[in-house]
Design brief:
The complex is a heterodimer of chains A (161) and B (591).
Chain A lengths: L1 H14 L5 E2 L4 E3 L5 E3 H7 L2 E7 L4 H21 L2 E6 L9 H7 L5 E4 L4 H6 L6 E6 L2 E7 L5 H13 L1
Parallel strand pairs in A: 4-5, 5-6
Antiparallel strand pairs in A: 1-8, 2-3, 4-7, 7-8
Chain B lengths: L1 H18 L7 H9 E12 L14 E12 L4 E11 L15 E10 L3 E8 L1 E3 L5 E3 L1 E2 L4 E2 L2 E11 L2 E12 L2 E15 H4 L6 E13 L16 E13 L2 E16 L9 E20 L2 E11 L49 E4 L3 E4 L1 E13 L11 E12 L2 E4 L13 E4 L6 E14 L4 E12 L1 H4 L8 E15 L2 E11 L7 E9 L4 E10 L12 E11 L2 E10 L2 E5 L2 E5 L2 E11 L1
Antiparallel strand pairs in B: 1-2, 1-34, 2-3, 3-4, 4-5, 5-10, 6-7, 8-9, 10-11, 11-12, 12-13, 13-14, 14-15, 15-16, 16-17, 17-20, 18-19, 20-21, 21-24, 22-23, 24-25, 25-26, 26-27, 27-28, 28-29, 29-30, 30-31, 31-34, 32-33
The chains are: A alpha/beta (161), B mainly beta (591).
Chain lengths: 161, 591
């Protein structure tokens, strides 16, 4: 009986789904250990991408490597800013800084060590990519497959107009 | 059962259908929708009998765990939320039986937050520093949730000072712990507070965490004062100057009882002697564009800490439920199946094992080094598209110690046994590894990753075997991806593990094909092809086939096969899995 009620609740939640909700307010850290809120970064950037990743996640690194190759073009054509937010906890968070520089990634890197943002997004796996326009989340995607960056760029073009 | 599955399918379908519906114009409803977020995750497993392992002997073959999280912003300042969980008919294999309800309210909160102040009542997650002193967190894939139920107040006296105070009881399945936890954390961004060090940054942190839990002595005649309150203090510092950075954290934990043995179901404590704990971690690094190096040192002594003393028994609590702090292994977290067979697990606890003499495990000491570099496009090694490399080394040892017992009883059963450790001594080696990883792009279509690992694993001590067994092994992996365009791609991965020890040689491979960026299928296999004493890993194919479908923030994945324990990374997602045979279905969505 409980199960049925549960499923009924789920069904009605389906009705409430929305395409555009505000970016949740969560406190993140910079690589230097300073605090920065998602509100701050959203108010300074009209169009941006937030991508959750981790140093131990191969598809995440593939995605960031692939985006890094074309990032310069993306920025010059659409003025987009890409925030790669790591969910690495203390097990692996010390690897982020040398990895980011060693790989020559030009993104903004922030830390979500206790998965507050990941939880606020309601995702259980990484990578997870969100396009944020004027503080609203307008596009979400979970996972990375080779070549997906082209599709992501089409979405960016759509929202940059 | 079929009826239930059907209902489940219907509700999933509803998500897909209604999530596309954007035509509603009612503003009240729109506002409500915009302040409301929810996410749902379902993991189901159907355990099958296995021709090699034998029948699945537990009663429930089909199990499912479900998480529904709801958050609602009442206004800019007020928000409320809850998480509903269902473990029907019971939790997945190997996961904790504390999570035992068919359907229940797991966590809930009420939060008021402004720029100056942030108050949470109910359940909350928190981490002080790197988590060595306190971490309340959730990892659904690992089956862990250590949220605290109580109150938390965060106060920002200025932009660069943050003060957190909290108290609560820790989540224990659908109940809470006996012990109370309270803590204070202060974080000061010194460089911006005093407007100094313009080219540098300095962040200082100080924490206190206490646990209060009553204790009933087994015998009234014990005169030793048994601490009800255990206190831990920590200080940490993050300093960055241009390309250099360093981080140091030290924790001291006051005297607490020692768990007397690790025999299942009989839990006693060393009531005559209590022991302190401490932890030191230090990182230093240098990085510039195209090159990064970091060195890490960590020493942990008697740092396992639970909100209920009895949870320290590793046999009864293998998944570390009710752990106050977070003590992960600091070695490279591997991405490939064969690299996840001989994994180092951190050794932070105090255990005294009884062989012909007491064997003291008081903690661990070790270090790891990471080097990343990018060989530029057009250079000799970089080639047309550039080459990226990573070298990683780690070394971990059991703390060197001497024991003594004033009563002269040379067994760990003695309550009077004490020990002393050396501060720096790396001689009791537990684990070491060397990892090389090279990522090379050959053309616009073809990319590859080459991985080489050489490792030493002290099985005797790490798995408490007392047989002097150890594993020396090397692992090689070649991983290539070819893009056909329009989201179509093929990935081929070949792995080999070589060793003359333990279960000896393994080989493995994966073929993965994406029809487009939403839909992919894969097969993979790991096969131990040599005779060895380890029967459960000899000449058995760990074969899997599966696929995934993704749309927006929703994902549906199915897998059939036999699993070893480890991290499984296919279909664009990584998650740890435990040994079993059967069908796995995962569904996640956020809206």
């Amino acid at each position: 009986m409980n199960k049925k009620k549960y499923l009924l609740v789920l069904f009605f939640l389906g009705l409430l789904t929305q395409a555009q909700s505000p970016l949740p307010t969560v406190e993140l850290q910079t690589l230097n250990g300073q605090l920065i809120s998602t509100d701050e970064i959203a108010s300074n950037n009209q169009l941006m991408i937030i991508s959750l990743w981790a140093t131990w996640c191969v598809p995440c690194k593939n995605e960031l490597d692939a985006v890094a190759e074309v990032y310069e073009d993306w920025v010059s054509e659409t003025d987009i800013k890409y925030f790669a937010i790591s969910i690495d906890d203390s097990r692996t968070s010390k690897r982020i800084k040398p990895m980011v520089d060693g790989k020559d990634w030009e993104f903004e890197i922030l830390l979500d060590e206790n998965s507050e943002l990941k939880r606020a997004f309601g995702v259980s796996t990484v990578p997870f990519t969100v396009i944020v326009k004027n503080g609203l989340m307008v596009y979400k995607h979970t996972g990375y497959t080779p070549g997906y960056e082209d599709e992501l760029y089409e979405q960016i073009l759509k929202f940059s107009q | 059962m079929i009826k239930k599955s059907l209902l489940l399918c219907c509700s999933m379908l509803a998500f897909f259908v209604f999530s596309q519906n954007k035509t509603n114009t009612n503003t009240f409803f729109q506002d409500f929708k915009n302040s409301f977020t929810a996410s749902y995750e379902s993991n189901s497993q159907w355990y099958l009998n296995d021709s090699k392992f034998g029948d699945f002997e537990e009663e429930e073959h089909l199990r499912s765990t479900n998480f529904l999280r709801l958050d609602y912003s009442v206004s800019n300042q007020f928000s409320v939320g809850a998480q509903l969980e269902s473990y029907a008919p019971e939790n997945l294999l190997n996961n904790s039986k504390l999570y035992n309800k068919d359907f229940g309210l797991a966590t809930y909160y009420l939060r008021f937050a402004t720029k100056k102040i942030d108050i949470t009542l109910g359940y909350f997650y928190e981490q002080f520093g790197s988590g060595l002193i306190l971490r309340a967190w959730e990892d659904r894939a690992l089956g862990i949730n250590t949220a605290l139920r109580g109150a938390r107040l965060i106060y920002y006296p200025s932009n660069s000072i943050k003060i957190t105070t909290l108290f609560g009881k820790q989540r224990k399945g659908f109940e809470v712990s006996d012990g109370d936890i309270f803590g204070v954390d202060t974080e000061i961004d010194v460089s911006s507070t005093f407007n100094i060090l313009s080219s540098s940054s300095l962040v200082l942190g100080l924490s206190y965490v206490g646990k209060n839990e009553s204790y009933l002595k087994s015998d009234e005649s014990i005169i030793n004062d048994i601490p009800v309150l255990v206190n831990a203090f920590s200080a940490r510092l993050d300093y960055t100057h241009q390309n250099f950075y360093t981080n140091v954290e030290y924790i001291e934990k006051s005297k607490d009882l020692r768990l007397n043995n690790i025999i299942p179901n009989i839990i006693t404590f060393s009531e005559n002697e209590t022991f302190k704990g401490n932890a030191l971690s230090w990182t230093a690094g240098y990085s510039q564009k195209g090159f990064g190096v970091s060195y890490n040192f960590r020493r942990l002594e008697n740092m396992r800490w639970f909100s209920e003393r009895i949870q320290a028994n590793a046999n009864n609590n293998p998944t570390n439920q009710l752990s106050i702090n977070y003590l992960p292994a600091l070695s490279k977290q591997h991405d490939y199946t064969l690299a996840n067979i001989y994994l180092y697990q951190s050794q932070p606890g105090l255990f005294i094992e009884n062989y012909e003499y007491p064997f003291i495990k008081a903690g661990e000491i070790g270090q790891f080094i990471d080097v990343f570099f990018n060989m530029k496009k057009g250079s000799l090694l970089g080639g047309k598209y550039g080459t990226k490399a990573n070298i990683n080394m780690s070394y971990w040892a059991n703390l060197a110690s001497d024991y003594s017992d004033p009563t002269g009883i040379p067994y760990f059963l003695s309550d009077n046994l004490t020990y002393e450790t050396e501060f720096i001594n790396f001689k009791n080696k537990l684990y070491s590894d060397l990892n090389l990883e090279v990522r090379k792009k050959w053309s616009k279509q073809l990319k590859s990753i080459f991985t080489f690992i050489n490792l030493y694993y002290n099985k005797s001590v790490l798995e408490s075997k007392a047989d002097n067994s150890s594993v020396r092994s090397w692992i090689g992996v070649v991983d290539g991806t070819y893009k056909f365009g329009k989201g179509k791609s093929l990935r081929l991965e070949l792995q080999h593990l070589s060793t003359n020890d333990d279960a000896r040689n393994w080989m493995g491979g994966t073929v993965e094909y994406f029809f487009n960026s939403n839909f992919g299928i894969y097969i993979n296999d790991s096969y131990n092809y040599e005779e060895s004493k380890i029967e459960q890993d000899t000449k058995i194919h760990f074969f899997n086939i599966g696929g995934s479908y993704t749309k927006g923030a929703s994902r549906f994945a199915v897998n059939y096969g036999r699993q070893r324990g480890g991290l499984l990374c296919v279909g664009g997602i990584c998650r740890p899995v435990s040994q079993n045979t059967g069908v796995t279905v995962n569904f996640t969505t956020a809206f």
